Amino acid sequence: MTATTPAATAPAGGSPSPDRPVAHPGHPGPVGTGSSATRVVGVLALLSLGLLALYGLVISPADVEMGDNVRLMYVHVPSATYLYLGCFITTVASGLWLWKRTPGWDALAEAGAEVGLVFAAITLVTGSLWGRPTWGTYWTWDARLTSTAVLTALLVGYLALRRLDLDPDSRSTRAAVLGLLLVPNVAVVNRSVEWWRSLHQKSTLVKLDPTIEGDMLVALMVGFVAIGLVFAWLMIHRFRLAWLEQQADRVDLDAALAERRAEASAGVAPAEPPPTADPPPSADASPASTAASSSTTEVSS
Amino acid sequence: MEPVVHLRDAVALLGRFPALAGIDLDVERGDIVLLRGPNGAGKTTVLRALAGLVPVVRGEARVLGHDLRVDPRPVRRRVGLLAHATGLFDDLTVGDNVTFWGRATRATAGDIDAALSLVGLSGRLRGVPVARLSAGQRRRTSLACLLARRPELWLLDEPHAGLDSDARDLLDGLVRQAVAQGATVVMSSHELERAEALADRVVVLDGGTTDGPERDAPPGPGAAPGVADPGVAGPGVADPGLVPGVAGSPVADRGAVPGTPADAPETEAPDTAVGTPPPEVSHVA
Amino acid sequence: MWRDASLVAGRDLRIEARSRVTLHQVAPFALLVLILFAFALDPDRGVLERATPGLYWVTVLFSALLALARSAKLDEADGVRDALRLSGLDPAGVFAGKALAVAAELVALEVLLGVGVVVLYGADPAGVGLLLATVLAATVAVATAGTLYGALVSGLRVRETLLPLLLLPVLAPVLIGATRAFESALADDPAAGWPWCGLLAAFAVLYSVAGALAYGTLLEGQ
Predict the structure, then answer these.
(1) How does residue B166 score in pLDDT terms, banded at 50, 70 and 90?
(2) What is d(CA A141, CA A154) in angstroms, rounded to the nearest whole number?
(3) Mean of per-residue pLDDT scores for chain A
(4) Residue C94 C-beta-side C-alpha neighbours within 13 Å
(5) Which of B30, B115, C33, C188 is deepest in the core (most CB within 10 A)?
(6) Are the C-beta atoms of residues B115 and B147 closer than 8 Å to each other?
(7) How is chain A split into domains, by residue range?
(8) pLDDT score recorded for residue A247
(9) Which chains have at least 3 CB atom pairs separated by less than 8 Å from chain A?
(10) CB A43 within 8 Å of CB A10
(11) CA angle B17, B22, B23 (to 5 degrees)
(12) A276 with A254: CB under 8 angstroms?
């Protein structure tokens, strides 16, 4: 995952730059994945992470039972929450893509899964680290950790499918069906794993103590805000990246048609895109066709 | 009467590639039309598009009264496609295969038996697994599957390939018989002599379009003589791309309007043989 | 739809009858896995007996992967996909037919494996009602999910490695549920096992519906 950092997208030395630099006229949408929106979110994320560190590590007290270990929870719990949010986004976006077939939903589904995977890793690591001092091992077959592990496998499978070298429509369709099943699968897995582990142990990793209060509550809230901002920042960048990849794949239909016709018998000079009766879809607009349609003498039928 | 096939400027994509870049085709009931053209011209794609398997994204496309751009699926049940791929299950016998595909299309046992006997596979060969058949026998099995469907429109993709002379005669006979019973046939072939003898009309494809010259094949026995090709746009359609003297007009020399070199009287019609560019090319920037 | 389903199921089973792949290859593989577990887990220390339900279902899952891959491959043959689209068969019916055919093969396999664990691991079948219900529910669950995912990877060059990667995490609840149900049955405590059976049934319903709805999209979308 190659996302630009907030520092890289900040205008150097205050020199003005367009919010959404455009590669060439007629090509809609951003060229880089940074924008003023992501810069704002990025800065806020960094600030709130700092606040989280302050509250989590310094201000809030150690827990009566768990000791300093509880501080991991301020990252672990939000991470798990946003992991589920990512999966939810993927499922909903997959469903919307199957319904509407607009490429934006496809890009969103991919972003949700990949960012979700990042948070799955964070959840697993923080969970393991929490377990070590408490139970003496890095891994316990705790319900939450186990379901997260299975969920990670589901996400890896989804992303493996997305990476295949296929006709883009075929790949998107398959991925969308898989993505649509993600949340149901997660629900079933969670239910069965919890049920299973409840046979053997009573306490799970994160039983949010309902009496949590004071600075610990604040630290947890800050955690949610901070991790949430990081999630949002990653999602925006990853979505734009996926969207741009799709745009790069996209072939201007009219240019392709012209090339195709030019394949016809030898000796024919390559032709400009012919005027067509239907207006070309805006997403496919290109400098060539806009130039052609402005200079032909055609009367559109 | 509405033509069985009506394509006007049809564009079809295979993935991102425009396999069909502007096809015009009109086929009346009872016609036998031959699609000709070099490899890669789009003949197979036209047949698959007519079957409703490849979506048409631009232009007009109506087959058997169904608008392919709205929903291509209803047309599938009414056509029969004989493709390069056999669509047969190697482990099953000839009889099993035809029975399965026949019953899938709601054919009766009678239809299935009739289909098998028409292709000469109702004897011993009926019980032979497809894996053990020769290529020609497999073709005949596929043909039986097509016959069992009783399609109104036959789409044959190089049907003579891989068949011996007897089998080719058999196929030709079945085609004529089907047409006599009201079916329509569109086929592609490289076996020009035999195919042109069978066909009423030839349509030439190149570069995904039908812009090349179209001509009538010498009519086969029983075919209506001198059928004019309705695929050409009527002479009343103005073709701005070929108005002489519009220097620098950035319009494709072949144009989006079909059949123009021979049928645009307002231009100096050049030699229309395929491969010779019309003089308008020189005006294109 | 059911007419189409029975047509397709009949076809798949007829192909199996002619080619005997499940009989000659998948079944021996399954028994071999049982034997390998014995090598790995030392039959003399009682581990094998305690682990029998789990080992049984893991073996079933691995064998199912083979059977499902084969089932999906049948419809990848040259031109068959086009012919299916042209035939006017209801895609939901095709899905149901294929799932039924695989389920039938799997049930036969599970019975065979049941005999295998009784003989090889010394298992003592009790709570037969629960055992049978679990076998049925789990089989439908595996067959429906597997047929759907088989269609999802069909035609891909990497389908042999992708199908297990996609399917096994999805089937984790089936493994958990079936094993717990078997444990309860063998421990003569069926009351604890029936809820697990219910979970399996719910899973089966989920994937039956999902498969029936999505199969057509996958058939067209390739």
Answers:
(1) confident
(2) 18
(3) 74
(4) 27
(5) B115
(6) yes
(7) 32-249, 253-295
(8) 81
(9) B, C
(10) no
(11) 115
(12) yes
pLDDT in tens, B47-84: 999 999 999 988 999 999 999 999 999 999 999 999 98
Please tell me the number of Cα atoms within 13 Å of B34 on its side-chain side. 28
Looking at chain C, list the stretches that DSSP marks H as alpha helix, in order from N- to C-terminal side: 2-19, 21, 27-41, 47-74, 80-87, 91-121, 128-152, 159-186, 190-220
Top CATH class of A32-249 equals mainly alpha
**CA-to-CA distance for A37 and A14, rounded, in angstroms?**
16
Amino acid identity of B159? P
Name the packing angle between helices C91-121 and C190-220 (round to 10°): 140
Residue range A103-112: average pLDDT? 93
**ipTM reported for the complex, 2 dp:** 0.92
pLDDT for res B215:
56
| Contact yes or no for B259/B230 (Cβ under 8 A) | no
Instruction: Check whether A114 has a pLDDT greater than 60.
Output: yes
Neighbours of C153 (CB within 10 A): 24
**Listed residue (B95, B25, B96, B101) closest to B56, CA to CA:** B25
Asked if the model's pLDDT at residue B90 lies above 60, the reply is: yes
**Nearest Cα to Cα of residue B103 among C8, C73, C100, C1:** C8
User: Which of A181, A182, A193 should we substitute to test contact with C (largest number of C Cβ atoms within 10 Å)?
Assistant: A181
Best-predicted range by mean pLDDT among A117-126, B31-40, B225-234?
A117-126
**Contact partners, residue B222, CB within 8 Å, separation at least 6:** B176, B180
Residue B160: strand pairing partners: none
Q: What is the pTM of this model?
A: 0.80
- Is the confidence at residue A193, as pLDDT, over 80? yes
* C176–A154 CB contact, under 8 Å: no
* Backbone phi, psi, residue A233, to 5°: -60, -45
Chain B neighbors of A275, CB-CB under 8 A = 240-241, 251, 256
- Sheet architecture: strand order including B56-63: B17-27, B5-14, B56-63, B66-67
Rounded Cα distance, B20 and C140, in Å? 44
The pair of structure tokens assigned to A158 is 């989804």
Do the beta carbons of residue B81 and residue C116 sit within 8 Å? no
Measured between beta carbons, which residues in chain B are less than 8 angstroms from residue C87? 76-77, 101, 104-105
State the burial class of residue C38 (Cβ atoms within 10 Å of its Cβ: 0-12, 13-18, 19+). middle
Residue of C180, C204, C202, C203 lying closest to C193 (CA atoms): C180
Of A54, A221, A223, A204, the residue nearest A130 (C-alpha): A204
Residue B168 has pLDDT above 50, yes or no: yes
In chain C, where the domains are located: 2-220
Find out whether B204 and B23 touch, Cβ atoms under 8 Å: no
Question: What is the pairing mode between strands B201-204 and B215-216?
Answer: antiparallel
Contact A184 C214 (CB under 8 A): no
Task: State which residues of chain C have pLDDT below 70.
Answer: none
